[in-house]
Amino acid sequence: MLHPSSALFLVASLLAALPVSADGIYTKKSPVLQVNQKGYNQLIANSNYTSIVEFYAPWCGHCQSLKPAYEKAAKSLDGLAKVAAIDCDDDANKPFCGQMGIQGFPTLKIVTPSKKPGKPKVEDYQGPRTAKGIVDSVMDRIPNHVKRLSDKNVDEWLSEDEESPKALLFTEKGTTSGLIRALAIDFLSSIKVAQIRSKESNAVEKFGITLFPTLVLLPGNGHEHIIYDGELKKGPMVEFLSQAASPNPDPAPAPAKKDKLPKWGESEKKPKPSEASASDGEPKPSIPVPVPTSAPIIDTLSTPEALESACLAPKSGTCVLALLSGSDETDAELSSNSKEALDSLAGVGHKHAQRKTNLFPLYGIPATNSAAQTLRARLGLPESAQSVEIIALNARRGWWRQYDPSDSADYGSVRVEAWIDAIRLGEGTRNKLPESTIVTKDKPKKKTDHDEL
């Protein structure tokens, strides 16, 4: 029989021999930002954003139990705040964890920017270890750089520094949302951001606002204001405001290493003979210019059987379909709207592929697929093959949604991506999918090499 101390030593040895992921609890695909001391200083302490940081050890059971809620919180706070983690079991991180006063795992700390750059306020998170609890606490601490206006002071605000761009949100709410606060952080010192209530009738009439919320961009220098008509999502809203000014870089860029790259406006140091041109003596570029790669086209479902198998079976999940116009499935016969719709969907799919994030399948359905006309009829869409329709449907859950290009027939990437993001987040109104749309007829036995989607 083993002595108790010998048994404990054997268990400890076996545990130590178990393989541990280099990423600790969180993999590289995780939405949680993994940092060490250098990354903490650069990306957290010097950021304009509020962050929450988990100090953990991979062997800690409570840390492993927290992982699902913490990753869910990271997804909810994406673009609004930072959710990070530090592996305190890593020898390189142990001194820093000690400096931060970590005495148990997991320890969560909320880091809020202060007026002194690089010296944020750090406090222990004492709330519930749930995604909602974490999100609520972090959202409460997002800095508010949004000015609250009324009819009494809106003109004064507009007249201040008229050459500089401004953004004004008209809203029915009396509170300042995390989204508009995050936008103000993105454009801190470059675009002044304010909000005004819908009850302030003079301002509402001045800008001709009829829907709430509505974001208005005033580019400055006497240019006419521009009304944003896209989805109220951070990505497309940042792109909209970028017409007037560039957003602040975040995560903060790493400090340039000395004697590596020349400063802006300075010439390079003496080039090596191999770098000089024999004809004019000018140095050749030392850094190759990356060539952007185009997004691959989305898959096409050319037959009724392919469409039914992929998206209309009783157990099919969410699909996004572009019901294309034209009399032939070749690109040369497609209308300009169909081409733009396909390009936009391809761009969205390419973005998610590069980020390695999961996205439901995107398909093009040519007009030659007879099932496309049937699907149009059952959903009450125009049956003419001259119009393009983008729809999302989920046969398993029995819902569908239609993309609205508005009167301008806008199938551009910004609006299409915002519409897809709303579907991913479960936002917006869904229509009941007619039962006749779902294919329930008996089918031959599946081949053994068929992969069920």
3D structure, described in words:
The chain contains 13 helices and 16 strands. α3 (61-76) links the parallel β2 (51-56) and β3 (82-87). α3 (61-76) packs across α5 and α11 packs across α13. It has a 6-stranded mixed beta sheet with strand order 11-13-12-14-15-16, with helices on both faces. The chain has helices at 4-17, 37-45, 61-76, 94-99, 131-140, 154-159, 178-186, 201-207, 234-241, 304-312, 336-355, 370-379, 413-424; strands at 33-34, 51-56, 82-87, 107-112, 121-124, 147-149, 166-171, 192-197, 214-218, 226-227, 299-300, 318-323, 362-365, 389-394, 399-402, 431-432. The chain has 453 residues and is of the alpha/beta class. It folds into 3 domains: 18-140, 3-Layer(aba) Sandwich (Glutaredoxin), CATH 3.40.30; 147-241, Glutaredoxin, CATH 3.40.30.10; 299-437, Glutaredoxin (3-Layer(aba) Sandwich), CATH 3.40.30.10.
Strand content: 15-25%
Helix/strand class: alpha/beta
CATH superfamily of the largest domain: Glutaredoxin
Proper CATH architecture of the largest domain: 3-Layer(aba) Sandwich
- Into how many domains do the coordinates divide? 3
SSE string, helices as H and strands as E: HEHEHEHEEHEHEHEHEEHEHEHEHEEHE
Q: What is the overall silhouette?
A: globular
CA(first)-CA(last) distance:
53 Å
What is the CATH class name of the largest domain?
A: Alpha Beta
Spatial strand arrangement across the major sheet:
11-13-12-14-15-16
Largest sheet: 6 strands, mixed
| Mean pLDDT score | 81
Number of strands: 16
Whole-number radius of gyration? 27 Å
CATH topology name of the largest domain, in short, is Glutaredoxin
Helix content: 25-40%
Number of helices: 13
